[in-house]
Fold:
Amino acid sequence: MIILKKVADIKLFISNTKEKGMATGFVPTMGALHAGHISLITKAKTETDQVVCSIFVNPTQFNDPKDFEKYPVTIEQDIYQLEKAGCDILFLPGVDEMYPTGLKNSRHFELGFLDTILEAKFRPGHFQGVCQVVDRLLEIILPEKLYLGQKDFQQCMVIKKMANANYPSLQIVICPTKREKDGLAMSSRNMRLSGTERKQAAKIAAALELVKKNISAGDVRELKLNTTQYLNSNGFKVDYVEIADANTLQLLDFWNGNQVIVILIAAFLNDVRLIDNMMVGG
Ligand code: AMP
Structure:
């Protein structure tokens, strides 16, 4: 695997491979890699000629400075895992390379109501930061295909919207969420959980399964409320338990029974914020 840290170097490398007709698959990450990230690399390997993974803990997408400071960094293990998965190029830029004119985002990305609900409501500015970094990475790497995880459901929709406007020929591939044996969605933030918290954390996936099992057409408000209470009584501080149309992310109080929907949860265990989702139908 080739490791490049400078924008100029990776641009040159990619332009040479483009001349040879090679298609690039791109997997952007913030590092602290786990099997979920690696599943994206593996998928990209099967569908493109070369795979680029980026590791950059993007300061502009953290609304909480403490979350940024505590974000796990495990670069040596990351390199080992990427090598093992057959990743071709690791792009490992510093802040100066990514944001040569400073961190302030002068550009506004038009995301409509996606920028006011769920993650956007509880993490103001988060998706503007996500778009800022993904736009910059796409502009540098110019991939044919971009691989994202369904684990970050709203983020997938936000990036699709941004990319449709700015990179219309880019293909976006959404990969399923990798889970631990007890159902917990793999996440870099899981590393920050204590032994007890780690066991508790599986209750989010259990709650999603419960909603999936018990949901029926009609009013779903009580189900959302009961699920919030279930999590709060199990030691979580819930940001939201929501049910939305899986195609538009329109939040629902009533389900017609036919619409493909997604159940979305965000909750804190002490100071670690976890998110997960599950689709029903589709
Ligand atoms: P992150 O490093 O958390 O920014 O994630 C980088 C990419 O990996 C994003 O597209 C995530 O949605 C995806 N990802 C994170 N966790 C998982 C998981 N458990 N399964 C599949 N993809 C994931």
